[in-house]
């Protein structure tokens, strides 16, 4: 029997994905929206998961960062095509602590750290050469020393109040389990028609 704790079930599915999904098992579609409800969605990499939520990192000045600042609700979908499974979650987006952002930033490759300093993520770029020049300038500025986390770079956790686990079944007779968080923090579980 599958766990009735949605995070335990997610950990089981994630382990299957890490063992069998050939590309980016941690890729997820993240949807945010403006205060007036205009949505946008993009692929990001899930870097944390557990009872505190699903975590990712980004430039706070990017479109997604600005949308989260204005409207802290989001949704995500993780689809493992080769496993014929997907997970959907909806909830509040909460910024991680500076210590967590620092620790994750320090774990990134040096080139990724440099890129975080060189990029004005989501803003117009006049030419690729401009970005390449900015990368080279950042490399020169930091030399061989540590690359600090930019102040405008951090992470978020989507703290779900709904999580759906979807499994493909022949003839579109899919199996859908829905977990909903209650006011006391416990979870209820039910099924959805496919």
Automatic annotation (TrEMBL):
The gene is pdxH. This is Pyridoxine/pyridoxamine 5'-phosphate oxidase. Catalyzes the oxidation of either pyridoxine 5'-phosphate (PNP) or pyridoxamine 5'-phosphate (PMP) into pyridoxal 5'-phosphate (PLP). Transmembrane segments: none annotated. Pathway: Cofactor metabolism; pyridoxal 5'-phosphate salvage; pyridoxal 5'-phosphate from pyridoxine 5'-phosphate: step 1/1; Cofactor metabolism; pyridoxal 5'-phosphate salvage; pyridoxal 5'-phosphate from pyridoxamine 5'-phosphate: step 1/1. Homodimer. Keywords: Flavoprotein, FMN, Oxidoreductase, Pyridoxine biosynthesis. Residues 21-139 form the Pyridoxamine 5'-phosphate oxidase N-terminal domain. FMN binds at residues 42-47, 57-58, 63-64, 86, 121-122, 166, 176. It catalyses: pyridoxamine 5'-phosphate + O2 + H2O = pyridoxal 5'-phosphate + H2O2 + NH4(+); pyridoxine 5'-phosphate + O2 = pyridoxal 5'-phosphate + H2O2. Substrate binds at residues 47, 104, 108, 112, 172-174. Its EC number is 1.4.3.5. Binds 1 FMN per subunit. Residues 153-194 form the Pyridoxine 5'-phosphate oxidase dimerisation C-terminal domain. Belongs to the pyridoxamine 5'-phosphate oxidase family. The keyword Nuclease does not apply. SUPFAM superfamilies: FMN-binding split barrel. Its cofactor is FMN. InterPro entries: Pyridox_Oxase, Pyridox_Oxase_N, Pyridoxamine_oxidase_dimer_C, Split_barrel_FMN-bd. It holds the Pfam family PNPOx_N. Signal peptide: none annotated. It is an enzyme of class 1 (oxidoreductase).
């Amino acid at each position: 029997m599958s766990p009735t704790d949605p995070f335990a079930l997610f950990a089981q599915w994630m382990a299957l994905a890490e063992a069998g999904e050939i590309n980016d098992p941690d890729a997820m579609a993240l949807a945010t929206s403006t205060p007036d409800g205009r949505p946008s969605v993009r692929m990001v990499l899930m870097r944390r998961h557990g009872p505190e939520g699903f975590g990712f990192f980004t430039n706070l000045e990017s479109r997604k960062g600005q949308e989260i600042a204005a409207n802290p609700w989001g949704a995500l979908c993780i689809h493992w095509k080769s496993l014929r499974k997907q997970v959907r979650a909806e909830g509040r987006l909460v910024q991680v602590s500076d210590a967590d952002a620092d620790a994750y930033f320090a774990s990134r490759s040096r080139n990724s750290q440099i890129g975080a300093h060189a990029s004005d993520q989501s803003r117009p770029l006049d030419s690729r050469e401009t970005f390449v020049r900015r990368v080279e300038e950042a490399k020169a500025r930091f030399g061989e020393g540590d690359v600090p986390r930019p102040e405008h770079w951090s992470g978020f956790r989507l703290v779900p109040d709904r999580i759906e686990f979807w499994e493909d079944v022949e003839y579109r007779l899919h199996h859908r389990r829905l977990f909903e968080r209650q006011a006391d923090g416990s979870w209820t579980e039910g099924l959805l028609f496919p």
